[in-house]
Amino acid sequence: MEHYLNKNIKEVILAFPETADILNEAGISCASCNVGTCRLKDVVDVHNLPLDEEQTLMTRIARVIYPDREAEVPRIKRKIPAAGGEIKYSPPLRNLVDEHTVIKRLLVLVPRILEDLDIARENDRKLVLDLIDFIRSYADRYHHAKEEDILFKVLDEDLEILKSMHEEHRAGRGHVQAVLDALEAGNNQEARDHLTAYGQLLTGHIKKEDEILYPWIDRNLSVSKVGVLFTRFTEIDKKFSDTASRQKEFIRSLEEIFNGEEVINNV
Amino acid sequence: MFNTCPGSKAADFRTKEVREDTPATKAGSQLRQWPVQLHLVSPVAPYYEGADVLLTADCVAYALGNFHADHLKDKSLAIACPKLDSGQEVYYEKIRSWIEDAKINTLTIMIMQVPCCSGLLKLAEKAARDADRKIPVRYSVVGVQGDILKEEWL
Questions:
Q1: The pTM is what?
Q2: Above 0.85 for ipTM, yes or no?
Q3: Distance set, CA A182 to CA A107, A139, A193 (Å)
Q4: pLDDT digit string, tens, across residues A83-95
Q5: Contact across the interface for A224 and B135, Cβ inside 8 Å
Q6: Cβ of residue B105 closer than 8 Å to a chain A Cβ
Q7: Bridge partner list, B137
């Protein structure tokens, strides 16, 4: 079993497709991950299941891998046991979750914006360029820079889970560039497709970070590192204060136009 | 009459089974400064500059079996009793001064579970809220039998 615990999750699922369903039932949706290079044991650790649920999950996976014998299921070592209930973040990670809330306010509007989007119209072109300005200045340069330049660097950057987050950031940037290329080429459908793909990617990405990655990071950060992150994030907040205010105002104006307020409350 | 206050109500734990951990070597002290009482310390003493500061109620270190290794290690300390100490307005000023002048990195407050102890947390919370500079503040509530009952960031 130890052998498979150290294999990446895509390989395990490829060799034993039934494991995807077992993981899904435990709320671990690795089968749909674009990257899938996290090791099975890290996947189990990072999702921080209660110990009895973890044991049941691992036993079921072991039975799929070794159907002819009762394999020994090692306990995944964790620093701090799972805590149930509402997620409580440390202040720097709360700061990132709050920024996600702003980004989600845009993502929820994307389908409405796309309903009648035609980049042949000047106003629609401008709207798409404004969306891209938000994505690049707020979601990427401001928010993702905190993650990539500061948060991930205080951790072990070779961790597969961080590599997969980097990969999703890169994929997001790819969609944004593709939207710009579609604008340039006057290809309305391409622009719509990549905006849709960006929205879907970021929605899943944020959910993973809020519910899985950040709580796991919090469980592994020392008090001192929380202080260092908080100080550095505060510096970034000061530097990007005008950008953040301008982009929040942009989201508010979009919400007025597309009347998305009631949807936001359900995010 | 003495039993009306949970903070001074007598409790006898002598029948409790105590785990006798015997470390291979004698556990060393993690204390890296003197003095420690909040009235006696200067908030801008060098050992507070940029430090992770631990402010505990007096009783905490006696309740926790492994206080030095698990909680004091790598931190600068101050202790106080929110029930018995006088002049606590000075405490408020000193906590603010830690944050604004000594530019401490984090503040961790440890209190006992008894209701009167929450005064220390409230005092520190107010000082941190009023301070111009912001820092992460964490608190723990310690049970009278040495368990950590709650631990979270404010």
A1: 0.81
A2: yes
A3: 20, 21, 10
A4: 567 889 999 999 9
A5: no
A6: yes
A7: B107
User: Which residue is it, tokens 């394999």?
Assistant: A71
Q: What is the pLDDT of residues A156-204, one digit of tens each?
A: 878 888 888 999 999 999 999 999 999 999 999 999 999 999 999 999 9
CB contact under 8 A, A88 and B153: yes
Residues of chain B under the 50 pLDDT cut: 1-2
For chain A, what percent of residues have pLDDT higher than 90? Answer: 57
State the Cα–Cα distance between residues A190 and B68, nearest whole angstrom. Answer: 61
Report the residue of chain A nearest B52, measured CA to CA. Answer: A224
pLDDT tens-digit readout, A132-142: 999 999 999 99
